[in-house]
Design brief:
Layout lengths: L7 E3 L12 E3 H5 L13 H15 L11 H10 L5 H14 L3 H6 L2 H8 L6 H16 L8 H5 L6 H12 L8 H10 L10 H11 L5 H15 L17 H4 L17 E10 L5 E5 L10 E2 L2 E3 L6 H13 L2 E14 L4 E13 L9 E5 L11 H15 L1
Parallel strand pairs: 3-8
Antiparallel strand pairs: 1-2, 3-6, 4-5, 4-9, 7-8
Helix pairs in contact: 2-12, 3-4, 3-9, 9-12, 10-12
The protein binds a DNA duplex (11 and 11 nucleotides) through helix 3, helix 4, helix 7, helix 9 and helix 10.
Length: about 400
DNA sequence: CATTCGTGGGT
DNA sequence: TACCCAAGAAT
């Protein structure tokens, strides 16, 4: 190789700035020839063997792995969607004590289910768990379905989750493609594009590699590999059972892969929020509609500020529109900044006094006046926790 | 195929 | 600090 091999250029098309800017040499870039089905068929047996041996020695001891109960495994798979193991652990343990069986979950009311989920985020997962539990009781004799087509037809269960459950609970040879597997495979073949742009190829790879003799352990093992060694930052390649098979490692690209797509900055919204007090020491809360953001959870009413509007005007207007009552807007209680997955908010929270009118659920499902003792039994979004703390603090002092 | 869905942790 | 990302699914 001559001088050309050190030629620096962006692998990505910087013209549209879509991919993050990372530099690599021409020889490295030319090695990124993966397109379509990778030729890993011949190496699959050796890859399986190396991975399973490593898993036997270094695999994580996780509570749901000690169980073969499809219900418990299902719960864990849903909780683990876009959520780290460490975060899930306490929720998982509490959940199984609250709802030990599918039947227990099915007969619970949604508020109890959402309260158990409170703080985990992506609340459609909890609503779908509840719905699906009732479906399993009614349509599947109370047992999580063993047929892939039946499983993936259930609310909240996609291809990866179905594969995760069927392989873990029933040892079925069904492939998975979660964040860990995507990253591991992207490095293994030095995938020359963001995983999101190569889903078909990655699924093929996952299916091709899956050990038909040990699907349960293989799927768990490849996830462990991604979670503990083949991490996003500073991967431990020297300890990796796939080191000698890994194209990224061979090309010293492990820190550059997988490729990422840069995202537009999140929009920021200013929200006016009302903590409405009545004359009996109660506060008004409302339950959000089932669909959309934070569906089914409780909140303090309010809404987005309009151009050339003060926070006080915003709060008074929103409360009139949403509840059809008149209030007096008093002092600012607290200001809460919070980031959701696709936008940021500042909650400008004001103490308010109920003046007149019976509140109507115009843009929500339900309204309640609650005391500070009762409020803890309602599921609230994370950002509202600070507001509740501030109200309690205010009541003390 | 792109967007909408939470929250906590890491850099 | 600000941004990225984590055992994804639904629309």
């Amino acid at each position: 190789m001559g001088e050309a091999k050190r030629t620096q250029y962006s692998v990505h098309d910087s013209a549209d700035g879509k991919y993050s800017q990372k530099q690599m040499s021409l020889s490295q870039a030319s090695a990124l020839s993966f397109g379509g089905t990778a030729n890993l068929g011949h190496a699959a047996p050796a890859l399986r063997q190396a991975l399973l041996t490593w898993y036997g020695e270094q695999g994580r001891d996780l509570p749901w792995r000690r169980s073969r109960d499809p219900y418990a495994i299902w719960i864990s798979e849903i909780m683990l969607q876009q959520t780290q193991v460490k975060t899930v652990m306490p929720y998982y343990q509490r959940w199984l004590k609250l709802f030990p069986t599918v039947a227990d979950l099915a007969k619970a009311d949604q508020q109890t289910v959402l309260k158990a989920w409170e703080g985990l985020g992506y609340y459609a997962r909890a609503r779908n768990l509840h719905k699906t539990a009732q479906l399993i009781v009614k349509q599947h004799d109370g047992v999580f379905p063993e047929v892939f087509e039946d499983a993936i037809a259930l609310p909240g269960i996609g291809r990866t989750t179905a594969g995760g459950i069927l392989s873990a609970a029933y040892n079925q040879p069904v492939a998975i493609l979660d964040g860990n597997v995507k990253r591991v495979l992207a490095r293994l073949v030095a995938l020359p594009k963001p995983p999101a742009k190569a889903m078909k190829e990655l699924w093929q790879l996952s299916e091709q590699l899956l050990d038909p003799q040990h699907p349960r352990d293989f799927n768990q093992a490849i996830m462990d590999l991604g979670a503990t060694l083949c991490t996003r930052h500073r991967p431990s390649c020297l300890l990796c059972p796939w080191q000698s098979y890994c194209t990224a490692y061979r090309q010293n690209l492990q820190s550059e892969l997988p490729m990422t797509e840069s995202r537009a900055p999140l929009p920021h919204k200013q929200i006016g929020v009302a903590v409405i007090h009545d004359n009996d020491g109660r506060i008004l809360i409302d339950r959000r509609k089932q669909e959309g953001l934070l569906g089914g959870l409780w909140e303090f009413p309010g809404g987005k500020i309009e151009p050339n509007e003060s926070f006080e005007e915003c709060v008074k207007r929103e409360i009139k529109e949403e509840l059809d009552i008149d209030i007096e807007v008093n002092d600012r209680l607290i200001t809460v900044d919070h980031a959701y997955s696709h936008f940021k908010v500042t909650l400008n929270v004001f103490n308010c006094t109920h003046i007149s009118g019976e509140p109507k659920p115009i843009e929500c499902d339900e309204i309640k006046w609650v005391t500070l003792d009762e409020i803890d039994s309602y599921p609230f979004p994370k950002a509202n926790g600070q507001i509740i703390d501030a109200i309690k603090e205010q009541a003390k002092g």
